[in-house]
Amino acid sequence: MTKPLALDSGPLGRIAHPRPNAEIALWLEGLVRRDRVVYLPEIADYEVRRNFLLEGLTGSISRLDELKTLLIYLPLTTEMMLKAAELWASARKLGFPTADPKVLDGDAILAAQALAVDAVVATENVAHLSRMVEALNWRDIR
User: Fold this and answer.
1) Where in the sequence is the domain holding 97, given as residue range(s)?
2) N or C terminus of the chain with fewer C-beta within 10 Å?
3) DSSP one-letter code for 3
4) Which contacts of 28-33 are long-range, i.e. CB under 8 A and separated by 24 or more positions?
């Protein structure tokens, strides 16, 4: 059985951008057409949406909202945040921080969300995420 996917903010931003990357848009369209389970994690939506809001990209915000209906929106839960705190601390203890210690670590939160639904993270940031969760470059996922 094929594992579900959870989109990282990099691929999500490229899909929702006013000039979407054609390659990744076709990739996602193909997954949806083949009924692949694809999650839109709340943390990825937050990371992408805040930048679109800052840049005034209202069309991209609308596209994000549309993707919430096309994909399976994965809201954060208390259990996910507790797991994210564990992942964050573990990565630092092992000497592999994924972000500055003073910032909210979206990678740890995304990893916790993916673990909660046994999903592979589709990303452009395999090095950081694969320390916490199964992660593949989106180009390597068919």
Assistant:
1) 5-140
2) N
3) P
4) 31/5, 31/141, 32/70, 32/71
Q: Give dist(CA 49, CA 69) in Å, integer.
A: 16
- Tens-binned pLDDT, residue by residue, of the chain (142 aa): 799 999 999 999 999 998 888 999 999 999 999 999 999 999 999 999 999 999 999 999 999 999 999 999 999 999 999 999 999 899 888 887 666 666 667 999 999 999 999 999 999 989 889 989 999 999 999 8
The burial of 89, by beta-carbon neighbours within 10 Å (0-12 exposed, 13-18 middle, 19 or more buried), is given as exposed
pTM recorded for the entire structure: 0.92
CATH code, domain with 91: 3.40.50.1010
Whose tokens are 């592999």? That residue is 96
